[in-house]
Amino acid sequence: PYQLTLGAGDTLWVHAGSTTNAPLLAAFVQGSSRGDTIVSPVPGGSLTFRFKSNTDGSTGVGWSARIFCAATPPPAVTYMGAGIRAIPCSGGLAYRFYDSGSPGLMDAGRTNYGNYGNNEDRIITFVSLNEAERIRLQFSSFHTEGYFSDFIEVYDGPSVNAPYIGRWGGSSLPPTLTSSGAYLTIRFRSDGTTNYPGWIASVTCTGESVPPTVNLSSPWAFYTLTSCNQRYLFTDMGAPTSNYSENRSDTISFFPPSGSRLAAAFSYQLRLASGDTLWAFAGTTCHSDSLLAVFTPGISDGDTLIGLADKALSFVFRSNLDGQTAAGWQAVIFCASPGAISTTYMGAGIRVVLCETGYQFYDSGRPYITPGGTYSHNEHRSLLFIAPSGCGVDVQFQNFNTEACCDSLVLYSGAQPDPTRRIGGYRGTNLPGGGSPISAGSDTMLAVFRSDGTVVDAGWSARLTCTTLLSVSLSPSGSIARCHGDSVTFTVSPGGTGYTYTWNTGYSTSMPTYTVYQSGTYYVIVTTPSGCSAMSAPVEVVIHPPLDTAVQVSGSGVGSTTLTGSGCSGNNIVCSWVNCATGQVVHTGSPFTPTQAGSYALVVRNTSTGCADTSSCYLVDQSTGVSDGQAAVSVYPNPTSGGVSFLSGQQRVEHVRLWDLAGRLVRVYSQPTLPLRLEAPQAGVFVIEVVGPNGEKEHIRWQVLP
Hints:
By secondary structure, the protein is mainly beta. Helices cover about 0% and strands about 45% of the residues. It is elongated and about 140 Å long. Residues about 105-110 and about 625-630 have low confidence and may be disordered.
């Protein structure tokens, strides 16, 4: 517990088992702390030690340690030393992690009991046992001299060449940090003056398996998540400790489980060199219509990008041949939870504001990079937000705090900082727009932020959403009147492939037309393929009720039969009688006494609405007048909108003749079997003449709607 001193290049390994092939628990090197407690991960488990020293002439005083059994194992403990510590992921075992100045440890250079020392520069790496799970670093206390003097730096990997997460110093508690893979590396530096109590932290496994690593290093690669329990760690070709290469042109696609959306969390690193670009697309078609984001040089780590349901998440990377490369990126690919939104910081490039997800937008002060989460000095950053086709961009600020004199955020409508399209400039502590949504009035919004070299503040948080720019119209519009039996067919504008039209009746279709047959108020909501929607103005449709075409028959025989229309009285009503065989008007007014044998129908017209209805045909011959309502056969449906009806009845039929109102014979059915399928050649009014076995005739009026 009190001594562990090794020479340069000398190593003491500890294995969780009876051989050196067992999993590594710890590796102690020069600079490792004394006071560590190593615990076997399983009851009854062995510990195997292996020591190796080299021949460079450098040695140390070595170590002394107490090996003991415990019914309840003590927690594993380590201090800010050097080497590797492995966290068992079973049984809830964890590491207590302290600075180098814990009580009982007094090294040369330490001026206060329990404080860390002066001029420290120590590096320690934590890893899950067998590299099986991701790990979590959580602080319960923290106090160093300051951000620029005594500080820790954390890296997302096995060394300080891994992706840089951030730096912390002072008395603010660092956030909880989770590795992308199995490793976290911590570096601590102190200057030669004041020192403080340091920290207390725990390092644990998260319970999440380390996702397999996928490097973007081929012209096109494909990976599928078979379930939402699966993840991938997506990196550039040089990750985790090297830069990517020059002159690359690579593409990769990740496919989600059915019904799911994929997300890419660039948790701690996305660094590109000048002229290099990483594009993200929804689907496998790398086209502007499916663009999700464009990452360009500038800090963009911390972003979480969410795709579309059942769409692949594809990335295209291009690096040029100019001698410049960068650390690249490391991102976790996983299923997004329902309702999740994309996240971005004041970085660089383009972000597409999907209607399904929107964006949470922050200043550049990621809490794991800058102290207190503030933005930095001397920033000059631009970030462009684009809405999908047919949509606009809105932003609503939730918090805002910048230096009132000198640090400003300016928003523009469009892709350029055009003064004529300036939406507004914001600084100080007042919420932009008073906290109400600020609209770009177009499908693009440019955010430009500048800070000076003095005071920095907390910055902002805001929500970006897409809004509609659609203007939906119906034709015909306004107030529409139609007669009974007529219909109204609406045509919607705009129209296009992939549009959805949802009517207030509940009917939804991909066609920009809709036919209605009843009175009512109608409007439609149009949704673009990108998810933006807009509603038309309502249209009032009046379908006039049917006119009274009832006919009273009195008398019998030609010259004695009188046909009287019940609905021929009243204002604006005009009645006339037509010969059903010829369609010619043979009499105006009511009553009507035919002087010739034939079939006659009453036409009732309302002159104020222009509507007219026609009765059934009434046969007047030497016997009496008979209407289709008294016929031994019937037609159903009547009227019909499909051009097909059925003639049914109990009696035997010799002939069925179909006439139009111009008196033309359209079709003849000889000795048909009932029910008989009737097919109309076109929309209109027809007369069905039914001839019985003894020559008796019945006439039925048949209306075929368009």
